[in-house]
Amino acid sequence: MAVYKIKTLNNNNRMSTQELLQTINKKLEEGITNFEIEACGQHDIGGASWSKDGKPLKFTVTNPGQRVGAMAMNGTTIIVEGSAPADVGWLNSGGEIIVKGDGGDTSAHCSAGGKIYIGGRVGTRSGALMKHDPRFEPPEFWVLKNTGSFSFEFMSGGIAVICGYDCEDIPSVLGNRSCVGMVGGTVYVRGPVEGLANCVEKVKLDKFDKDFLKSGMEPFLEKVGRVELKDELLDFSNWAKIVPLPKELKEKKISVKEFKETEWFPEGLFGDLVEDNGEVYELAQTGDGRLRKPYWDEKQCVACDLCLSNCPQRAIVKEDKTYKSIDDKCIGCGICSAVCPREAWRMV
Ligand code: SF4
Ligand code: SF4
After folding, report:
1. CA of 266 to the centre of ligand 2 (A)
2. Residue 129 in domain
3. Which residues 6+ apart lie within 8 Å of 116 measured at CB?
4. Distance 285 CA to ligand 1 centre (A)
5. Domain boundaries, position 303
């Protein structure tokens, strides 16, 4: 299969992401399906690309930017020679993505299909929101070493395998606060785990689990070039699996406020930036709950009354030649600003 090579840096001229993706698309239309890309941080390489004849695609990439393999499709193979930054395989839909070095934060985030193989570590929130549509095979996410904190948050399906290799000095191979809100899927893990959310449990492997790991480990290690580790990683004495607690143990319902305080992040996620009273706002808020507030500039206004007649809340009042928005009626929708011919309302 002919290989089309793209070098994205020539005499200090860097090809933009858009130029690179357009070049790839043009070559795909010409029937090229095998690419070697010397990238310099361009985003979204190898993801939502396809051949019109349905031929498999292959991308071999060095130095990619974010979202390499994002939304990759069935039949696409992406090989990263080295490491990749955030969002490797974001929303992977069926591609095979191999990163021989480390993956960044949010690797495999929202992954819904295909396989992601990482030959090193991955960062925070990796595996979060993985999901499984039962009409397709579950997504798989294999990591040779460990993940950062908050991994597998709100996971609802799929399979992750965290091999804990080279993690002897790490107290938890899943970082801290992993699996918060996890409701489905399985995380196989080798090595210590601390700070696990209390909606999941860590249990021993059964025969099915061992068979799955035995069948998948060798291909994984071959792809990341570490096949010599097979025997060490298939010693099951240090493995466990994390699964959501059975439904009946989760019957107790708690409020969003309580969830935020006890489950999500005990000290408050943004505690040092804003005071969070735990209230859950309605979708459209008036007063201080608004996302934006309109400010009127009398120098611009020509008193056409368009804002007055278009405000869905009847929140604008006119007194003499002054227009005012009433805080506890206004929902910050911005219609006044959009209809004003003079840009006299500024949304802040
Ligand atoms: S932002 Fe919306 S609700 Fe508020 S004054 Fe303007 S049009 Fe009315
Ligand atoms: S739409 Fe603009 S110019 Fe017209 S009255 Fe309102 S603020 Fe003034």
Report:
1. 47
2. yes
3. 69, 88, 89, 92, 97, 99, 103, 107, 108, 139, 140, 141, 142
4. 11
5. 287-347
> Do 197 and 324 belong to one domain?
no
Ligand number nearest to the C-alpha of 327 = 1
**Residues β-bridged to residue 172:** none
If one counts the domains in the chain, the total is 2
Q: What is the pLDDT along the chain (348 residues), one digit of tens a residue?
A: 689 999 999 998 999 999 999 999 999 999 999 999 999 999 999 988 888 888 999 999 999 999 999 999 999 999 999 999 999 999 999 999 999 999 999 999 999 999 999 999 999 999 999 999 888 899 999 999 999 999 999 999 999 999 999 999 999 999 999 999 999 999 999 999 999 998 999 999 999 999 999 999 999 999 999 999 999 999 999 999 999 987 655 566 777 777 777 776 665 555 555 666 666 666 778 998 888 999 999 999 999 999 999 999 999 999 988 999 999 999 999 999 999 999 999 999
259 found inside a domain:
no
Q: Which residue lies with its CA nearest to atom 4 of ligand 1?
A: 330
Instruction: Give the pocket of ligand 1 (CB within 6 Å).
Output: 294, 311, 313, 315-316, 325, 330-336
Q: Is 175 exposed, middle or buried (0-12, 13-18, 19+ CB in 10 A)?
A: buried
Report the candidate in 197, 185, 176, 97 with the shortest Cα–Cα distance to residue 143.
97
Q: Hey, whose CA ends up nearest to atom 4 of ligand 2? A: 304
Residue 263, domain member (yes or no): no
Ligand in nearest proximity to the CA of 313: 1
The answer to whether residue 265 is domain-embedded is no
CATH label of the domain that carries residue 201 = 2.160.20.60
